[in-house]
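Problem statement: downstream parser choked on a complex file, so we are re-checking the raw output for the zinc ion run. The parser issue turned out to be on our end (a line-ending mismatch), but while we're here, posting the original submission so the record is complete.
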Amino acid sequence: MIGLPATQRALVAESAKAPHQIKEIPVPVPADDELLIRIRYSGICHSDMGAYEGDWPAITKFPLIGGHEGAGEVVAIGKNVKDWQVGDNVGVKMRNNVCLSCEFCKKGFESNCPHIVNTGYGSPGTFQEYMTIRAIEAAKIPKGADLASVAPILCAGVTIYRAIKESNVHPGEILALTGAAGGLGSFGIQYAKARTSY
Ligand SMILES: [Zn+2]
Ligand SMILES: [Zn+2]
C-alpha cells in the first residue's frame, strides 16, 4: 500500500485485565471486502470495560485491541469494494461481520446473529491508528463533518437512536428516558427534541 507506514501504534491488552500497553504492530492489509481506515478519533464505551475484563469470553479475542466507536478516513480499499473512495470520511460501529443467512439476519436484526463478530471484541477495534472493517458495515460520514463529534455517535448515539425510533413516539407525546443525564441519555434528549419536527 503506497504511502502508508508498515507499522502503527495500538493499545493492546494481552489477556483479560492485563495492563493496556502501547505496541508497535503491523498496519493491517484490507481483505477483498474491507476498507483500511486511518482512525482520527475514538470514543470509549462502557462495553469496552466488559471486553477488557473478559465478561464476554465467547465473543472476545485476546490479545485485544478494543474500541467500537471511531471516525476517520479511508486510506485503502479491497478489490471487491464498490462505492467507497480513498479520502472518504468513514465511521466504525460495533458490528463488523454477520452471516447474512440466519433468521435474525434475514429479518433485519443482524445484531442478534449468533455468528456476529464485533469490532473491538472479535476483531481489532478503534484503539489503533489504522484498522480494517468490512465495507458493508462501514458508515458513510459527510465531508466536512466534525469527526471528534461523530465518533461517540457510532455506538452510544445509534443505540439510543434505535430505542427512540422503536418506541414509535410522535410529536406531542411524552418520552421517558431512564438515566437521562448519562451518555446515552444526553444523546436521547437531543434526538427526542429533534424528532418533534418530523
Ligand atoms: Zn459501545
Ligand atoms: Zn446471521
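For whoever reads this later: The chain has a mean pLDDT of 94.
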